[in-house]
Structures are given as structure tokens and as C-alpha cells.
Amino acid sequence: MLLNFKKTKLYIGISLMIQAISFIALFIMLYTKKRSYSSAFLVLGVLGGAVGAYLLYLQKLEDDLEYEDNFGEFLRRKYDINDNFDDTDFETVDKPEDDMDEIEIPIDESVDETEFS
Fold first, then answer.
1. Structure pTM?
2. How far apart are CA 83 and CA 81, in angstroms?
3. 13, 37, 45, 80: which could form a disulfide with 24 (CB 3.0–4.6 Å)?
4. Tell me, what's the pLDDT at 107?
5. Contact in structure between 5 and 48 (CB atoms under 8 Å)
6. Residue ranges per domain, the chain?
7. How far is CA 45 from the centre of its chain?
8. Residue of 22, 24, 21, 17 lying closest to 59 (CA atoms)
């Protein structure tokens, strides 16, 4: 990796982006006065902006990876999830299978089918 500090890429990336905006603004001011070195500021502005954007992208990738790692740990702590499950951790409920045959559905015989048409 380029830098091993936690948020250094973020700060350097933001600084390079601001510097790039300044160089591009300086290029515009010097270009209107037909100065020969104005193109040097354009090149510096574009390169600084590209490097700054790349550093911000790298910082975002690192933050996303750190979030994914920490999110699993967060869930384990919050819900007290233990990765070592035993079959004894779950209770079994015995359901009698004969109960399904004994269910009766009440039918109202006083109602005529023509009332529903």
C-alpha cells in the first residue's frame, strides 16, 4: 500500500483535489492573458485531480472492507451469535400426526347457495 495510516489517503486526496481546482482556475486566468506557462498549470491540475480521486477511491474501498469485517462482528456481539452450534441448542417439539385427521369443519346448513349468487 502507498500509505499505512488510517485516514491519510482521505486527507491527501482531498488536498490534491482542492489543489487541482486551484491550478485549473489559475490556468484559466493565465490562458486568457496568453501566457506560455498556463498549460503547465493545466497539466498539474489534471494530474493532481486524478491522483486525488484515486486516493479517495482507495480510501473508500478500505472503508467498505473495514465496514464489512466490523459488521459481522457487530452482529455477533449484538445478537450474541455463537458460531459453534450444537444440535442440543434447539428444542424439538413433538407434534402428534393423528390430530390432522380429527379436525372438523363446521358447515352451516341453514344458508342457501342462491343467496350468494
1. 0.52
2. 6
3. 45
4. 78
5. no
6. 8-81
7. 31
8. 17
Instruction: Compute how many other C-beta atoms are within 10 angstroms of the C-beta atom of residue 41.
Output: 20
Q: Which three cell numbers stand for residue 91?
A: 428444542
- Judge whether 27 and 41 are in contact, CB under 8 Å: yes
- Alpha carbon of 70 to those of 1, 22, 56, 73, 82: distances in Å? 21, 38, 21, 5, 16
Per-residue HEC secondary structure of 17-65 comes to HHHHHHHHHHHHHHHHCCCCCHHHHHHHHHHHHHHHHHHHHHHHHHHHH
Instruction: Tell me which amino acid residue 57 is.
Output: Y
pLDDT in tens, 30-89: 998 888 888 999 999 999 999 999 999 988 888 877 776 666 666 666 666 665 555 554
